[in-house]
Amino acid sequence: MKLIERRISAETLPWQDRDVLGTMIQVDGSPTLGSVNGQRVVLAGTNNYLGLTFHPDCVRAAAEAAHRYGTGTTGSRLASGTYPDHAALERDLAEFYDARSAIVFTTGYQANVGMISAIADRDTVILLDAQSHASIYDGATLSGATTYRFKHNDPADLEKRLRRLGEGAANSLVVVEGIYSMLGDTAPLKEFCEITTRYGASMFVDEAHSFGVLGATGRGLAEALGVEDQVDVIVGTFSKSLGCVGGYAVSRHHDLTSLRGAARSYIYSASSSPSVMASARAALKVIRENPSLRQRLLDNARVTYGALQQLGYELGPEVSPVVGVHVRDSEHALDAWHFLLDHGVYVNLVPLKASPGPFCLLRVSLSAAHTPEQVETIVEAFRALKQSGPLRG
Amino acid sequence: MEKREDYAVRLTELVNRLAEAGTVVDVDSDLVDDVGLSSIEIMELVEQLEDAYDISFPLNDLAEIRTINDMVKELERLVANR
User: Fold this and answer.
1) SS (H, E, C) A187-237
2) Which CATH number goes with the domain that contains B67?
3) Domain limits at B30?
4) Residue A61 Cα, gap to closest chain B Cα (Å)
5) Hey, do A13-43+291-387 and A56-289 end up sharing a CATH topology, with the first three levels equal?
6) What predicted TM-score, i.e. pTM, was given to this entire model?
7) Does domain A13-43+291-387 fall into CATH 3.90.1150.10?
8) What is the pLDDT of residues A367-382, one digit of tens each?
């Protein structure tokens, strides 16, 4: 048997025989409504936190850019792939974050992989939170750095590991996230920053799920907790609050320019299409001018989290736009997921393999664009699920 | 300082606690294929060792550890470099 045949027969997707993970969502003119398998549903699993995918300013900017600059750049940023909107978006982000510099990547995954592997190398150490996103683990692997994971959201465990490094602690990069994507919990960033500062380590925060969501102006958890001055690099994504696709890195303290040449995912990927850059710029402007979007999102999160908690579901530890509902095993999770679809609600089905604990998840993500009626539909579907019998929920 | 044999005894005990009843565990047992530990259980095991010996296991080396014996060698190396 050839290698590829052995691999194909050895690997299986979760629920591969049930045709679940390839589920096609038909979106039709709305950030919160669509169809799945012909069933009309409220979309509550898209991480479209501010609902900007159909904002008229963003759609118009994307269309105009496509007409003017074409559908793609066909080149890397270091070759022919830097168009006016790439540079302009970097200036916008630097200004938004009051940062010295910003770098835009084609995806959020590439931003983490590129930046981590550009900063760390085999002579350095990376300490990452155990529940970090795969892009953080992959960046650490690519860097060749000696990598340790510390217990999730546990400052004491981080400190213990920095202490064990002795003088090497000053040569280390600590990586955490603003909001964790599976359970919606936030990092105790103030404590982490105090520890990393004391040990002279560098602090790297992935604000993928907190950008546009937390902080007085939407810059994320570091802004919300008043520790931006203690963070060396912030990375984020455009594929959630900005409603398109792409990633970025910013730094208040450091000029990141030279790292462009060290980030392989930056050098060896085609740059984002001009329409994506234009819509990201428009979305960032919308965020800056509409702080009420964040309030609406957090109100929807509060209502949903409170209602599901009252129904007796086991949830993540805090109110968040990501509400992770625990389900004890794969069969029940799949059953519950279908039940919710039948009751007009699409959420993410998270297999055991991707879950942070020994359970599956039904991951609900709220949006500022969810109407009170849509939030009610979500809650009612979970109520019906709970009432449908002990095997579910 | 503990000897390699001491590490092996201690580690075998810890693995036995995680293994299903009736599973035969020895130093050459493959932690996944023979003992049936999940990745979460292996990380629990690693954390217990880290706390017990005040060391940190690099993720880079964990992928190479398949048996109790492999883990004993890594443990010995990390304790020696502490």
Assistant:
1) CCHHHHHHHHHHHCCEEEEECCCCCCCCCCCCCCHHHHCCCHHHCCEEEEE
2) 1.10.1200.10
3) 4-80
4) 44
5) no
6) 0.95
7) yes
8) 999 999 999 999 999 9
Task: Determine, for residues B57 and A148 on separate chains, whether the beta-carbon distance falls below 8 Å.
Answer: yes
Contacts of A151 by beta carbon, 8 Å cutoff, 6+ apart: A130, A157, B47
Q: A56-289 has which CATH code?
A: 3.40.640.10
Name residues of chain B where pLDDT drops below 70. 1
**CB-based contact B40 A148, cutoff 8 Å:** no
> Do the chains contact at A151 and B57, CB–CB below 8 Å?
no
- The residues spanned by each domain of chain A are 13-43+291-387, 56-289
Partner residue facing B60 (CB), from A147, A161, A358: A147
- Domain count for chain B: 1
Partner-chain contact A146 B57, CB within 8 Å: no
Q: Which helix (H) or strand (E) holds A88?
A: helix A84-97
Q: How far is CA A152 from the centre of its chain?
A: 17
Q: Which residues of B touch A358 (CB under 8 A)?
A: 38, 40
Q: Which of A86, A133, A209, A343 is catalytic?
A: A209
Lookup: tokens for A204: 């790297």
